[in-house]
Specification:
alpha+beta, two-stranded parallel sheet, 13% strand, globular, 9 helices
Length: 270
């Protein structure tokens, strides 16, 4: 039998094997794969139980110490921030997605040509269109997919960072990385240059194992911070943070940063 005959003979067996894989795939794995299909770079699942008390206590100390500075909105909806079920009645699960915004390796890529005369710097994430506008529609498509697989018997709340939700703590619980000394979520492959989004849902899904680990002895981000906003005691003082000041406060004393700041990200080994 020639090559064509061999292909025709083996193809039905290959299809049946693939079909068995699809049938045995859990809804959770289907959700992760659908997230990747929609353009996200990673996805994880956690339950909708309240965030651990250790996160709440650190946040309360941070607020009382005045470190929120210009971020006055952080004083609002504190209870909702640490309990997903307060954002959606009956919530049982949270799907967390990550999208890398690391720029192309070459500065001459389309849309990334650098000016010949330096005029100031803009944070990498802000060099794209408003990420809320393209993450939310993808999250809605992901929610629609889950709804179709659950026979429509579930409800959803779509969240990007404007929603009062401790998304980095949830991302750790969903197995997407750890919170570094730069107070950013660090994914083991994608690094800290990621945007997060969440789908809070009443669907009951099997949670992923939470991420473990920390930055160890590394303090490169602390040393790279130009203003000392990353304090050695583990707190971030937003009153000194260049990124916060250029977005919410005075731009004085922020060097050549026009909007945001990437110093602590670029110093991270990941």
């Amino acid at each position: 039998m020639g090559p064509v005959g061999q292909t025709e003979f083996t193809r039905p067996i290959q299809l049946r094997a693939w079909d068995s894989i699809i049938l045995s795939m859990g809804i959770e794995q289907e959700i992760r794969e659908k997230a990747l299909e929609l353009g996200f770079d990673a996805a994880g699942i956690t339950d909708a139980s309240p965030i651990g008390r250790e996160h709440v206590e650190q946040f309360e100390i941070w607020l009382r110490s005045g470190y929120a500075g210009p971020l006055q909105y952080m004083h609002h909806n504190v209870e909702k921030r640490f309990d997903p079920a307060k954002l959606l009645d009956g919530a049982r699960s949270v799907i967390v997605v990550a999208l890398s915004y690391k720029p192309p390796a070459t500065a001459t890529a389309v849309g990334w040509a650098l000016p010949t005369i330096p005029i100031g710097r803009v944070a990498q994430y802000a060099q794209y269109e408003d990420y809320h506008d393209f993450i939310k529609p993808r999250l809605r498509k992901l929610a629609d997919f889950v709804k179709s697989r659950m026979d429509g018997n579930c409800r959803f709340k779509i969240c990007v960072d404007s929603a009062p939700l401790a998304e980095k703590a949830l991302a750790v619980r969903a197995g997407l990385g750890v919170i570094g000394k730069n107070h950013l979520l660090i994914h083991p492959q994608l690094g800290p240059q990621i945007l997060l989004g969440e789908v809070v849902t009443t669907a009951v899904l099997k949670p992923d194992a939470p991420s473990q680990g920390d930055c160890g002895d590394c303090d490169l981000c602390l040393r790279a911070c130009p203003t000392g906003a990353l304090r050695p005691d583990g707190f971030l003082d937003a009153r000194l943070c260049t990124s916060c000041l250029t977005q919410y406060g005075s731009s004085s004393g922020t060097g050549d940063w026009l909007f945001g700041c990437d110093e602590c990200l670029l110093a991270c080994p990941h």
